[in-house]
Amino acid sequence: MGSILSNLKSTVIAGLILTVVVFVGVRLVTGAGFGIDHEWGAFFVRWLHVVCGVMWIGLLWYFNFVQIPNMPNIPDDQKPAIGKVIAPAALWWFRWGAMGTIVFGLLLAAQNGYLIEALLIGLTDGGNSTPIGLGMWMGIIMWFNVWFVIWPNQKKALGMVEVGADEKAAAARTAMLFSRTNTLLSFPMLFCMVAAQNGGFS
Questions:
Q1: In Å, how far are 27, 40, 41, 47 from 36, measured between CA atoms?
Q2: Mean pLDDT, range 50-66, rounded to an integer
Q3: pTM, whole model, 2 decimals?
């Protein structure tokens, strides 16, 4: 067990295998069988959407609740370890978590037949898609911020793109402000997503 847990790749593979074992075990116990239909396919895409979303929002909150507030407390000689090692790795998972969340979320909405209604925020179906539509639009705005504002500015702030000192400082501030914007949006976005399926607006 120690060899599995001491290696991240092995841990992830073991976690996925355990997921399959749980799935097969529950299907056997409940007698549900192993047919793959539309409902199960939509569930699987929803699971991928949630997994990516946990990665994305978890790292967003790590940046805003842990890294950014504590950077002033880190001695200057130790800051390069954050900027050169930790932050680039975290930003890679952060932006691809955002991409996966959006792609699987839009695919799920299309599979379940409410993509257009949700994007129109319920205007075509009497408002039935308003909660999920609001959540989707907040998620899309957050995704846009990640890929087209935060990431380009973080590359400058971390020295991946060479710029002058003033532009580097401005880029760091812009990335921070848009990261905070995403943190602000994350709370109502998550509320809308959960409430749309669990009666939070009823």
A1: 12, 6, 7, 15
A2: 98
A3: 0.91
Average pLDDT value for residue range 191-197: 90
Cβ-based neighbour number of residue 167 at 10 Å: 14
Three-state SS for the chain is CHHHHCCHHHHHHHHHHHHHHHHHHHHHHHCCCCCCCHHHHHHHHHHHHHHHHHHHHHHHHHHHHHHHHHHHHCCCCCHHHHHHHHHHHHHHHHHHHHHHHHHHHHHHHHHCCCHHHHHCCCCCCCCCCHHHHHHHHHHHHHHHHHHHHHHHHHHHHCCCCCCCHHHHHHHHHHHHHHHHHHHHHHHHHHHHHHHHHHCCCC
- Percentage of the residues of the chain whose pLDDT score is greater than 70: 100
Compute the distance between CA of residue 24 and CA of residue 37 in angstroms, rounded to an integer. 16
pLDDT per residue over 110-159, tens digit each? 999 999 999 998 788 877 889 999 999 999 999 999 999 999 999 999 99
**How would you label 73-87 residue by residue, b for 16+ Cβ within 10 Å and e otherwise?**
eeeeeeeeebbeeeb
Instruction: Report how far apart, in Å, the C-alpha atoms of 132 and of each of 120, 164, 197, 198 are.
Output: 10, 43, 8, 11
Check whether 66 has a pLDDT greater than 90. Answer: yes
Q: Taking 80 as the threshold, does the pLDDT of residue 33 lie above it?
A: no
Tokens of 93: 């998972």
